[in-house]
Amino acid sequence: MSLRLILCLAMLAVLGACSKPAPPEEPVRAVKLMTVQSAALSATQEFSGEVRARIESRLGFRVAGKIIARHVEVGQSVKAGQLLAEVDPQDYRLAQEAARAQVQAALTQRDLAAADFKRYQALVQQGFISGAELERRDTTLKAAQAQLDQAQAQAANQGNQAAYTRLLADRAGVVTAVEAEPGQVVAAGAPVVRVAQEGPRDVVFALPEDKLSRVSLGQTLQVQLWGQDAQLAAKVREIAASADPVTRTFAIKLALPANAAAALGVTATVRLSRDSAPRQEVIKLPTTALRQEQGKTSVWVYDPAQQTVNAQEVEVSTADANEAVIAKGLSLGQQVVVAGVHVLSPGQKVTVYRSPYEKPANGAAK
To answer: What is the pLDDT of residues 213-266, one digit of tens each?
Structure first.
């Protein structure tokens, strides 16, 4: 073998080693299809709500101070008059003692002025002093009495301030939130504990703007509590005057019956009947069939002749339970991919997924 032939074979081997391997073929994926058919909208719409207390108070101290103790936890039941928290009472007790001392001093001055007035009365009757001098003593006695009254009122006020260092529950209820901890300095009126009072219960849910006209005060709606089969008749008690600035929904409060066993925070399903219009036939698809791309909604439509899928833009008008109502973009009889939509590409070949329990059509072999 000549040297030239050996060199050519070596160069071919090197070039073959440096060439890129052929890209793997795109796998043929199995997809689950659904034939587009017309269906009627449900007779009712469901909204999720929450059971809340009719009255929920945010309790705080009537004086400022440093919290030294908190005696309740979230979820704890409390009774009327039960101690919830305390702030440091030292400064208020000192002020109360100072007010009591002022009362004693004012009382002494009043007693001294009263004794002088009594003695001068006797002197006036004996003719030793004039009536003008007695009037001055009477004025001094009245001023001393006024100072005593002021000191007593100040002492009562300081006594109230000292009592306000103890936060008490004004009604029986359940603690739903704690908004301050021991060691924290709070201002007068700052919320410390939130208590849901015992008594009537409401179901609160958010209603979109386009559904607001279907609800009115006093209207009866059907409510089903989580974990319960029975439906309760609840009346619309309150409709928010303005929409939430973020969600653009209106808060609706429903009054539950007095005998309803509804725990706080339980999820409730509110059923709202649709307008009394003729039943409308629409196209509905499961939400798993929809895909978002560049701000547009589309679905994959199956081409049985080519066994490929292509993207089809659609317009969603509303939701019906767990399905989306399609307003435009699809025709009856088309086949749409309802599972695995995020791993497909336009023109990709696919196979139709069939359940192993599904019987073959026309007696074909499995």
So the answer is: 889 999 999 998 988 888 889 999 999 999 999 888 999 999 999 888 888 888
| 232: CB partners within 8 A, 6+ apart | 222, 223, 224, 225, 256, 257, 260
pLDDT tens profile 89-138: 999 999 999 999 999 999 999 999 888 888 888 787 777 777 787 788 88
Instruction: Give the whole-angstrom CA distance, residue 254 versus residue 261.
Output: 15
The two three-digit tokens of residue 34, written as one number: 């659904």
Domains and CATH numbers, the chain: 29-42+279-359 (2.40.420.20), 45-54+199-273 (2.40.30.170), 59-86+165-196 (2.40.50.100), 90-163 (1.10.287)
Q: Name which residue leads in pLDDT, 6 or 352.
A: 352
Q: Which of 202-211, 280-289, 317-326 has the lowest mean pLDDT?
A: 317-326
pLDDT score for 223: 92
User: Cα–Cα distances in Å, from 146 out to 97, 139, 150, 184?
Assistant: 20, 11, 6, 41
Mean pLDDT, range 305-333, rounded to an integer: 85
Which residues contact residue 183 at a Cβ distance below 8 angstroms, ignoring those fewer than 6 apart? 66, 67
